Amino acid sequence: MDPITPQFLGPLTETLPTWLAIIGGYLLGSIPFGLLLTHIAGLGDIRNIGSGNIGATNVLRTGNKKLALLTLLLDGGKGAAAALLAGMMHPLLGMFAAAAAFIGHLYPIWLHFKGGKGVATFLGVLLALSLPTGIATALTWALVAAGFRFSSLAALIAALASPFFAFLFSGLPLAILTASLAFLVVMRHEDNIRRLLRGEEPRIGAKKEK
Question: N or C: which end of the chain has fewer CB within 10 A?
Answer without folding.
Answer: C
